[in-house]
Specification:
With 106 residues, the protein is of the alpha+beta class. Helices cover 13% and strands 18% of the residues. The strands form two sheets. Strands 1-2-3 form a three-stranded antiparallel sheet, with helices on one face. The termini are far apart.
Amino acid sequence: YAFQHERYWLEETAGAGDVTAAGLQGARHPLLGAAMELAGSDRTVFSGRLSVASHGWLADHTVGGVMLVPGAALVELALRTGDEVGCGRLEELTLQAPLVLPETGA
């Protein structure tokens, strides 16, 4: 029936898009999606998306039924972002709480 008012919503998909189309620079790293230098400063913002869909190995790091980002991945993120801005050394890193991944989404 043509006038049966049923809604149909497409499911969102988290795909890897072309970050340069948004004016960002590619970060050239599997855990980082983009880098953006802030105008008028010497600061850079990095972004990325972690999910089991894009990084299947994250499913292997489950503690108590909860998926967590491994500490080694967070150290790698700190080292890589530091490297990008000319700081290639990490002396200390304190993680106050685990980074919990949702079951779906990113």
